[in-house]
Specification:
alpha+beta; 4-stranded antiparallel sheet; 454 residues; Elongation Factor Tu (Ef-tu), domain 3; 6-stranded antiparallel barrel; 4 domains; elongated
Protein backbone atom coordinates (compact mmCIF):
# COMPACT_ATOMS: atom_id res chain seq x y z
CA UNK A 1 0.00 0.00 0.00
CA UNK A 2 1.55 3.29 -1.12
CA UNK A 3 0.11 5.39 1.72
CA UNK A 4 1.22 2.99 4.47
CA UNK A 5 4.72 2.58 3.06
CA UNK A 6 5.24 6.30 2.47
CA UNK A 7 3.95 7.09 5.98
CA UNK A 8 6.33 4.53 7.49
CA UNK A 9 9.27 5.94 5.51
CA UNK A 10 8.58 9.47 6.77
CA UNK A 11 7.99 8.24 10.32
CA UNK A 12 11.32 6.37 10.45
CA UNK A 13 13.14 9.40 9.03
CA UNK A 14 11.61 11.82 11.59
CA UNK A 15 12.22 9.44 14.50
CA UNK A 16 15.88 9.06 13.54
CA UNK A 17 16.42 12.74 12.78
CA UNK A 18 14.48 14.35 15.65
CA UNK A 19 14.83 11.77 18.43
CA UNK A 20 18.05 9.99 17.43
CA UNK A 21 16.48 6.53 17.89
CA UNK A 22 18.25 3.86 15.86
CA UNK A 23 15.83 1.50 14.12
CA UNK A 24 16.40 -1.87 12.46
CA UNK A 25 16.11 -2.08 8.70
CA UNK A 26 12.73 -3.03 7.29
CA UNK A 27 13.17 -5.17 4.15
CA UNK A 28 9.58 -4.48 3.06
CA UNK A 29 10.11 -0.73 2.69
CA UNK A 30 11.41 0.80 -0.58
CA UNK A 31 15.17 1.26 -0.71
CA UNK A 32 15.21 3.94 -3.42
CA UNK A 33 13.47 7.30 -3.88
CA UNK A 34 12.62 7.51 -0.20
CA UNK A 35 12.54 11.29 -0.45
CA UNK A 36 9.66 11.07 -2.93
CA UNK A 37 7.78 8.69 -0.65
CA UNK A 38 8.16 11.09 2.26
CA UNK A 39 7.13 14.02 0.06
CA UNK A 40 4.00 12.07 -0.90
CA UNK A 41 3.05 11.75 2.78
CA UNK A 42 3.56 15.48 3.39
CA UNK A 43 1.48 16.32 0.32
CA UNK A 44 -1.27 13.94 1.45
CA UNK A 45 -1.45 15.60 4.89
CA UNK A 46 -1.60 19.09 3.35
CA UNK A 47 -4.29 17.88 0.95
CA UNK A 48 -6.41 16.51 3.80
CA UNK A 49 -6.13 19.80 5.69
CA UNK A 50 -7.09 21.78 2.60
CA UNK A 51 -10.12 19.56 1.94
CA UNK A 52 -11.37 19.80 5.52
CA UNK A 53 -10.80 23.56 5.65
CA UNK A 54 -12.53 24.09 2.28
CA UNK A 55 -15.56 22.04 3.33
CA UNK A 56 -15.72 23.93 6.62
CA UNK A 57 -15.56 27.31 4.85
CA UNK A 58 -18.22 26.24 2.35
CA UNK A 59 -20.63 24.98 5.00
CA UNK A 60 -20.00 28.03 7.17
CA UNK A 61 -20.87 30.48 4.37
CA UNK A 62 -23.82 28.48 2.99
CA UNK A 63 -25.49 27.70 6.32
CA UNK A 64 -24.85 31.05 8.04
CA UNK A 65 -27.65 32.99 6.24
CA UNK A 66 -30.14 30.32 7.37
CA UNK A 67 -29.13 30.43 11.03
CA UNK A 68 -27.51 26.96 10.80
CA UNK A 69 -23.92 28.08 11.17
CA UNK A 70 -23.55 25.85 14.25
CA UNK A 71 -23.93 22.75 12.04
CA UNK A 72 -20.99 23.82 9.90
CA UNK A 73 -18.94 24.50 13.03
CA UNK A 74 -19.74 21.05 14.44
CA UNK A 75 -18.76 19.31 11.20
CA UNK A 76 -15.59 21.39 10.98
CA UNK A 77 -14.69 20.52 14.58
CA UNK A 78 -15.17 16.82 13.79
CA UNK A 79 -12.81 17.12 10.82
CA UNK A 80 -10.17 18.95 12.86
CA UNK A 81 -10.52 16.33 15.61
CA UNK A 82 -9.55 13.61 13.15
CA UNK A 83 -6.61 15.60 11.81
CA UNK A 84 -5.17 16.72 15.16
CA UNK A 85 -6.23 14.35 17.93
CA UNK A 86 -5.52 11.12 16.06
CA UNK A 87 -1.85 11.99 15.26
CA UNK A 88 -1.34 13.12 18.87
CA UNK A 89 -2.83 9.85 20.10
CA UNK A 90 -0.48 7.86 17.85
CA UNK A 91 2.50 9.88 19.09
CA UNK A 92 1.48 9.25 22.70
CA UNK A 93 1.30 5.50 22.08
CA UNK A 94 4.76 5.64 20.48
CA UNK A 95 6.38 7.22 23.55
CA UNK A 96 4.37 5.08 25.96
CA UNK A 97 6.07 1.91 24.69
CA UNK A 98 8.33 0.58 27.51
CA UNK A 99 12.02 1.37 27.01
CA UNK A 100 11.38 3.82 24.17
CA UNK A 101 12.33 6.94 26.16
CA UNK A 102 15.74 5.49 27.11
CA UNK A 103 16.70 5.33 23.41
CA UNK A 104 16.01 9.02 22.84
CA UNK A 105 19.11 11.24 22.42
CA UNK A 106 18.59 14.41 24.46
CA UNK A 107 20.61 16.73 22.23
CA UNK A 108 18.49 15.73 19.22
CA UNK A 109 15.31 16.43 21.19
CA UNK A 110 16.68 19.81 22.29
CA UNK A 111 17.51 20.80 18.71
CA UNK A 112 14.07 19.64 17.53
CA UNK A 113 12.34 21.58 20.30
CA UNK A 114 14.36 24.67 19.41
CA UNK A 115 13.39 24.45 15.74
CA UNK A 116 9.72 23.98 16.66
CA UNK A 117 9.91 26.96 19.02
CA UNK A 118 11.43 29.10 16.26
CA UNK A 119 8.67 28.10 13.84
CA UNK A 120 5.94 28.83 16.40
CA UNK A 121 7.61 32.11 17.30
CA UNK A 122 7.76 33.08 13.64
CA UNK A 123 4.07 32.29 13.21
CA UNK A 124 3.08 34.22 16.34
CA UNK A 125 5.39 37.22 16.23
CA UNK A 126 6.79 37.83 12.71
CA UNK A 127 4.49 40.45 11.11
CA UNK A 128 3.42 40.49 7.48
CA UNK A 129 1.45 43.01 5.44
CA UNK A 130 -2.21 42.72 6.43
CA UNK A 131 -5.22 43.25 4.16
CA UNK A 132 -9.01 43.16 4.50
CA UNK A 133 -11.26 41.64 1.83
CA UNK A 134 -14.80 42.95 1.43
CA UNK A 135 -17.65 43.29 -1.05
CA UNK A 136 -17.84 46.45 -3.14
CA UNK A 137 -20.13 48.13 -5.64
CA UNK A 138 -19.57 51.12 -7.91
CA UNK A 139 -22.14 53.92 -7.55
CA UNK A 140 -22.36 57.55 -8.69
CA UNK A 141 -20.83 59.95 -6.16
CA UNK A 142 -23.62 61.15 -3.90
CA UNK A 143 -22.11 64.36 -2.48
CA UNK A 144 -19.30 66.64 -3.58
CA UNK A 145 -16.00 66.10 -1.78
CA UNK A 146 -15.59 69.12 0.49
CA UNK A 147 -12.18 70.72 0.95
CA UNK A 148 -13.40 72.76 3.92
CA UNK A 149 -14.76 71.11 7.05
CA UNK A 150 -18.43 71.70 7.90
CA UNK A 151 -19.15 73.13 4.44
CA UNK A 152 -22.63 72.68 3.00
CA UNK A 153 -22.95 69.39 1.14
CA UNK A 154 -23.68 69.64 -2.58
CA UNK A 155 -25.71 66.74 -3.95
CA UNK A 156 -24.09 65.21 -7.03
CA UNK A 157 -26.37 62.27 -7.84
CA UNK A 158 -29.92 61.16 -7.23
CA UNK A 159 -31.96 58.05 -7.90
CA UNK A 160 -35.27 58.89 -9.56
CA UNK A 161 -38.24 56.78 -8.41
CA UNK A 162 -41.76 56.53 -9.80
CA UNK A 163 -43.23 57.73 -6.43
CA UNK A 164 -46.77 56.83 -7.53
CA UNK A 165 -48.14 53.72 -9.19
CA UNK A 166 -48.97 54.07 -12.85
CA UNK A 167 -48.63 52.79 -16.39
CA UNK A 168 -45.33 53.63 -18.09
CA UNK A 169 -46.61 55.80 -20.96
CA UNK A 170 -43.62 57.67 -22.41
CA UNK A 171 -39.89 58.24 -21.90
CA UNK A 172 -38.15 61.50 -22.84
CA UNK A 173 -34.50 60.63 -22.08
CA UNK A 174 -31.97 57.91 -22.70
CA UNK A 175 -28.64 56.97 -21.10
CA UNK A 176 -26.17 59.81 -21.58
CA UNK A 177 -28.79 62.56 -21.89
CA UNK A 178 -28.08 65.80 -20.03
CA UNK A 179 -31.03 67.06 -17.99
CA UNK A 180 -31.59 70.18 -15.94
CA UNK A 181 -33.46 70.17 -12.65
CA UNK A 182 -37.18 69.97 -13.43
CA UNK A 183 -36.83 68.43 -16.90
CA UNK A 184 -39.41 65.77 -17.78
CA UNK A 185 -37.98 62.26 -17.71
CA UNK A 186 -40.91 59.84 -17.80
CA UNK A 187 -44.67 60.23 -18.04
CA UNK A 188 -46.97 57.81 -16.23
CA UNK A 189 -50.68 57.20 -16.64
CA UNK A 190 -53.09 56.48 -13.78
CA UNK A 191 -56.79 56.98 -14.49
CA UNK A 192 -57.70 56.35 -10.85
CA UNK A 193 -55.63 59.31 -9.65
CA UNK A 194 -57.09 61.60 -12.34
CA UNK A 195 -60.63 60.43 -11.55
CA UNK A 196 -60.06 60.99 -7.84
CA UNK A 197 -58.95 64.57 -8.54
CA UNK A 198 -62.04 65.17 -10.67
CA UNK A 199 -64.28 63.83 -7.90
CA UNK A 200 -62.68 66.08 -5.29
CA UNK A 201 -62.90 69.08 -7.63
CA UNK A 202 -66.57 68.36 -8.33
CA UNK A 203 -67.37 68.00 -4.64
CA UNK A 204 -65.52 71.24 -3.90
CA UNK A 205 -67.45 73.14 -6.59
CA UNK A 206 -70.71 71.77 -5.20
CA UNK A 207 -69.87 72.90 -1.68
CA UNK A 208 -68.88 76.37 -2.91
CA UNK A 209 -72.20 76.70 -4.74
CA UNK A 210 -74.02 75.66 -1.58
CA UNK A 211 -71.94 78.18 0.38
CA UNK A 212 -73.06 80.99 -1.93
CA UNK A 213 -76.73 80.03 -1.49
CA UNK A 214 -76.44 79.80 2.30
CA UNK A 215 -74.78 83.23 2.49
CA UNK A 216 -77.88 84.72 0.85
CA UNK A 217 -80.26 82.84 3.15
CA UNK A 218 -78.53 83.37 6.51
CA UNK A 219 -80.06 86.85 6.95
CA UNK A 220 -83.59 85.41 6.98
CA UNK A 221 -82.92 81.80 8.08
CA UNK A 222 -81.05 81.05 11.34
CA UNK A 223 -80.61 77.38 10.39
CA UNK A 224 -78.85 78.46 7.18
CA UNK A 225 -76.19 80.23 9.28
CA UNK A 226 -75.44 76.99 11.14
CA UNK A 227 -75.30 75.00 7.91
CA UNK A 228 -72.96 77.62 6.44
CA UNK A 229 -70.36 76.93 9.14
CA UNK A 230 -70.47 73.19 8.37
CA UNK A 231 -70.18 73.81 4.63
CA UNK A 232 -67.20 76.12 5.10
CA UNK A 233 -65.44 73.44 7.20
CA UNK A 234 -66.06 70.91 4.43
CA UNK A 235 -64.68 73.38 1.87
CA UNK A 236 -61.45 73.76 3.88
CA UNK A 237 -61.11 69.98 4.11
CA UNK A 238 -61.78 69.49 0.39
CA UNK A 239 -59.27 72.21 -0.54
CA UNK A 240 -56.58 70.37 1.41
CA UNK A 241 -57.56 67.09 -0.26
CA UNK A 242 -57.47 68.75 -3.67
CA UNK A 243 -54.04 70.23 -2.99
CA UNK A 244 -52.71 66.83 -1.92
CA UNK A 245 -54.30 65.07 -4.89
CA UNK A 246 -52.97 67.68 -7.33
CA UNK A 247 -49.47 67.08 -5.96
CA UNK A 248 -49.93 63.32 -6.25
CA UNK A 249 -51.24 63.64 -9.81
CA UNK A 250 -48.32 65.90 -10.73
CA UNK A 251 -45.97 63.06 -9.76
CA UNK A 252 -47.24 61.16 -12.80
CA UNK A 253 -44.84 63.42 -14.69
CA UNK A 254 -41.48 62.29 -13.31
CA UNK A 255 -38.98 65.15 -13.39
CA UNK A 256 -35.27 65.44 -12.68
CA UNK A 257 -34.49 66.55 -9.09
CA UNK A 258 -31.00 67.79 -10.04
CA UNK A 259 -28.99 68.54 -13.17
CA UNK A 260 -26.73 65.84 -14.54
CA UNK A 261 -26.25 62.90 -16.88
CA UNK A 262 -28.91 60.19 -17.03
CA UNK A 263 -27.77 56.67 -16.12
CA UNK A 264 -30.00 53.59 -16.21
CA UNK A 265 -31.24 52.24 -12.89
CA UNK A 266 -29.92 48.84 -11.71
CA UNK A 267 -30.74 45.93 -13.99
CA UNK A 268 -33.73 43.78 -13.04
CA UNK A 269 -33.56 40.15 -14.10
CA UNK A 270 -36.70 38.61 -15.64
CA UNK A 271 -38.80 36.83 -13.02
CA UNK A 272 -41.20 33.93 -13.39
CA UNK A 273 -44.78 35.12 -13.39
CA UNK A 274 -46.13 32.30 -11.13
CA UNK A 275 -49.66 32.99 -12.29
CA UNK A 276 -49.30 36.76 -11.91
CA UNK A 277 -48.99 39.46 -14.54
CA UNK A 278 -45.35 39.80 -15.63
CA UNK A 279 -43.47 42.86 -14.38
CA UNK A 280 -40.90 44.91 -16.26
CA UNK A 281 -37.36 43.59 -16.60
CA UNK A 282 -33.96 44.71 -17.82
CA UNK A 283 -33.37 48.47 -17.70
CA UNK A 284 -36.52 50.52 -17.15
CA UNK A 285 -35.46 53.08 -19.77
CA UNK A 286 -35.52 50.37 -22.45
CA UNK A 287 -38.23 50.88 -25.06
CA UNK A 288 -39.51 47.33 -24.44
CA UNK A 289 -40.77 48.38 -21.00
CA UNK A 290 -43.15 51.04 -22.35
CA UNK A 291 -46.63 50.09 -21.15
CA UNK A 292 -45.46 48.28 -18.02
CA UNK A 293 -47.05 49.00 -14.66
CA UNK A 294 -44.68 50.68 -12.20
CA UNK A 295 -44.78 50.63 -8.41
CA UNK A 296 -43.98 53.75 -6.36
CA UNK A 297 -40.60 52.35 -5.29
CA UNK A 298 -39.44 51.31 -8.77
CA UNK A 299 -36.20 53.14 -9.69
CA UNK A 300 -36.47 54.76 -13.12
CA UNK A 301 -32.96 56.12 -13.59
CA UNK A 302 -30.00 57.71 -11.85
CA UNK A 303 -28.81 61.26 -12.46
CA UNK A 304 -25.08 61.67 -11.91
CA UNK A 305 -22.63 64.54 -12.19
CA UNK A 306 -20.04 64.30 -14.99
CA UNK A 307 -16.35 64.74 -14.43
CA UNK A 308 -15.20 68.37 -14.52
CA UNK A 309 -13.43 67.86 -17.85
CA UNK A 310 -16.61 66.38 -19.37
CA UNK A 311 -19.06 69.04 -18.15
CA UNK A 312 -19.26 71.07 -21.38
CA UNK A 313 -19.64 67.98 -23.57
CA UNK A 314 -22.37 66.70 -21.24
CA UNK A 315 -24.35 69.95 -21.47
CA UNK A 316 -24.20 69.74 -25.26
CA UNK A 317 -25.79 66.27 -25.03
CA UNK A 318 -22.76 64.71 -26.72
CA UNK A 319 -23.03 61.81 -24.28
CA UNK A 320 -25.91 60.29 -26.22
CA UNK A 321 -23.41 59.20 -28.86
CA UNK A 322 -21.83 55.79 -28.21
CA UNK A 323 -18.60 56.93 -29.89
CA UNK A 324 -17.30 58.81 -26.84
CA UNK A 325 -19.69 58.65 -23.88
CA UNK A 326 -19.57 61.07 -20.96
CA UNK A 327 -17.57 59.99 -17.92
CA UNK A 328 -19.33 60.54 -14.60
CA UNK A 329 -17.95 60.84 -11.07
CA UNK A 330 -18.08 57.47 -9.34
CA UNK A 331 -17.35 56.02 -5.91
CA UNK A 332 -16.39 52.54 -4.85
CA UNK A 333 -18.72 51.72 -1.95
CA UNK A 334 -17.18 49.04 0.29
CA UNK A 335 -19.21 47.01 2.78
CA UNK A 336 -16.89 46.39 5.75
CA UNK A 337 -17.55 44.05 8.67
CA UNK A 338 -17.73 45.65 12.11
CA UNK A 339 -14.65 43.68 13.18
CA UNK A 340 -12.60 45.44 10.47
CA UNK A 341 -14.06 48.94 10.30
CA UNK A 342 -11.86 50.26 13.14
CA UNK A 343 -8.74 49.24 11.22
CA UNK A 344 -9.70 51.21 8.11
CA UNK A 345 -8.65 54.86 7.95
CA UNK A 346 -8.81 57.56 5.24
CA UNK A 347 -5.84 57.23 2.93
CA UNK A 348 -5.58 53.43 3.15
CA UNK A 349 -4.72 51.80 -0.17
CA UNK A 350 -7.56 49.92 -1.89
CA UNK A 351 -7.56 47.48 -4.81
CA UNK A 352 -10.92 47.01 -6.54
CA UNK A 353 -11.74 44.19 -8.96
CA UNK A 354 -15.17 44.20 -10.63
CA UNK A 355 -17.01 41.14 -11.90
CA UNK A 356 -17.61 42.90 -15.22
CA UNK A 357 -13.85 43.40 -15.74
CA UNK A 358 -12.07 40.66 -13.75
CA UNK A 359 -8.72 41.26 -15.46
CA UNK A 360 -8.45 44.92 -14.37
CA UNK A 361 -7.57 46.11 -10.87
CA UNK A 362 -8.39 49.70 -9.86
CA UNK A 363 -5.98 51.28 -7.37
CA UNK A 364 -7.48 53.93 -5.12
CA UNK A 365 -7.61 55.13 -1.49
CA UNK A 366 -10.21 55.21 1.25
CA UNK A 367 -11.85 58.66 1.33
CA UNK A 368 -14.23 58.21 4.25
CA UNK A 369 -15.99 55.58 6.35
CA UNK A 370 -19.43 55.77 7.91
CA UNK A 371 -20.26 55.68 11.61
CA UNK A 372 -23.74 54.17 11.23
CA UNK A 373 -24.25 50.54 10.30
CA UNK A 374 -26.20 49.31 7.29
CA UNK A 375 -29.93 49.03 7.87
CA UNK A 376 -30.41 47.10 4.64
CA UNK A 377 -28.08 45.28 2.26
CA UNK A 378 -27.64 46.53 -1.32
CA UNK A 379 -29.72 44.20 -3.47
CA UNK A 380 -27.00 43.17 -5.91
CA UNK A 381 -24.40 42.49 -3.16
CA UNK A 382 -26.58 40.06 -1.17
CA UNK A 383 -25.87 36.34 -1.30
CA UNK A 384 -29.47 35.77 -2.46
CA UNK A 385 -28.61 37.70 -5.64
CA UNK A 386 -25.30 35.92 -6.17
CA UNK A 387 -23.24 38.61 -4.44
CA UNK A 388 -20.35 38.25 -2.01
CA UNK A 389 -22.14 39.65 1.06
CA UNK A 390 -23.74 37.11 3.41
CA UNK A 391 -27.31 38.25 4.09
CA UNK A 392 -30.52 37.08 5.78
CA UNK A 393 -34.15 38.19 5.79
CA UNK A 394 -35.20 39.97 8.97
CA UNK A 395 -38.66 39.96 10.52
CA UNK A 396 -39.86 42.84 8.34
CA UNK A 397 -38.77 41.15 5.12
CA UNK A 398 -35.68 43.30 4.56
CA UNK A 399 -32.39 41.80 3.37
CA UNK A 400 -29.75 42.62 6.00
CA UNK A 401 -26.09 41.56 6.41
CA UNK A 402 -25.44 38.51 8.59
CA UNK A 403 -23.08 40.55 10.75
CA UNK A 404 -23.18 44.29 11.44
CA UNK A 405 -21.48 46.10 8.55
CA UNK A 406 -20.50 49.64 7.62
CA UNK A 407 -19.82 51.59 4.44
CA UNK A 408 -16.43 52.90 3.39
CA UNK A 409 -16.00 54.96 0.22
CA UNK A 410 -13.14 55.47 -2.18
CA UNK A 411 -12.76 57.43 -5.41
CA UNK A 412 -12.70 55.39 -8.60
CA UNK A 413 -12.11 56.57 -12.14
CA UNK A 414 -14.78 55.65 -14.68
CA UNK A 415 -13.55 53.75 -17.73
CA UNK A 416 -15.14 52.52 -20.92
CA UNK A 417 -16.41 49.36 -19.25
CA UNK A 418 -18.27 51.29 -16.53
CA UNK A 419 -19.87 54.02 -18.63
CA UNK A 420 -23.62 54.48 -18.16
CA UNK A 421 -23.80 51.60 -15.69
CA UNK A 422 -24.52 51.75 -11.98
CA UNK A 423 -24.33 49.23 -9.18
CA UNK A 424 -21.45 47.21 -10.64
CA UNK A 425 -20.27 44.77 -7.98
CA UNK A 426 -16.99 43.07 -7.19
CA UNK A 427 -14.37 42.52 -4.50
CA UNK A 428 -12.11 45.03 -2.77
CA UNK A 429 -8.90 44.57 -0.82
CA UNK A 430 -7.98 47.24 1.73
CA UNK A 431 -4.45 47.62 3.10
CA UNK A 432 -4.74 49.34 6.53
CA UNK A 433 -0.98 50.09 6.81
CA UNK A 434 -0.62 47.51 9.56
CA UNK A 435 1.43 44.35 9.85
CA UNK A 436 0.08 41.30 11.62
CA UNK A 437 1.51 37.85 12.33
CA UNK A 438 0.01 34.64 10.95
CA UNK A 439 -0.87 33.59 14.48
CA UNK A 440 -2.85 36.80 15.09
CA UNK A 441 -4.76 36.26 11.85
CA UNK A 442 -5.54 32.65 12.69
CA UNK A 443 -6.73 33.54 16.19
CA UNK A 444 -8.84 36.38 14.83
CA UNK A 445 -10.47 34.14 12.24
CA UNK A 446 -11.25 31.44 14.81
CA UNK A 447 -12.58 34.05 17.26
CA UNK A 448 -14.89 35.54 14.63
CA UNK A 449 -16.06 32.15 13.40
CA UNK A 450 -16.83 30.70 16.82
CA UNK A 451 -17.73 34.06 18.47
CA UNK A 452 -14.99 34.07 21.08
CA UNK A 453 -14.33 37.37 22.82
CA UNK A 454 -11.38 39.18 21.27
Amino acid sequence: NLRQKSTEVLKRFMVGMCLGIEQPENPFLPQRNRFLFGLYTVAAVIYRWLIVFSIFMFLNQVLEPYGLKILGQIMGAMGVFGLVVQPLWQMGKFFYTPGRMHKVKKHRVAITAGVIALVIGGICFVPFEYHIDCAVRVVPREYKVQEVAFAAEEKMSATVFAQVAGRYEACFVKPGTWVEAGDLIVKLENHDEVRRLEQITGALDEQRSQEAVLKQQRSVDEQAAEELIEVQERIVSLEKQKQQQEHKSSLLEVRAPIAGVVLPAPYRAPQSSSGQLPSWSGYLLDHENIGATLAPDDPICIIASPQESELERARQNLGESSVKPIRVQLDAELVVDQADIELIKPGNKVEVCLELMPSKVYDTQIRQSSYTHLQQSPANLSSQSGGQLGTVMDGSGRVVPVSTSYYARANIESTGGMLYQADLRGRARVYPNQKRSLGWRLYRYVARTFHFAM
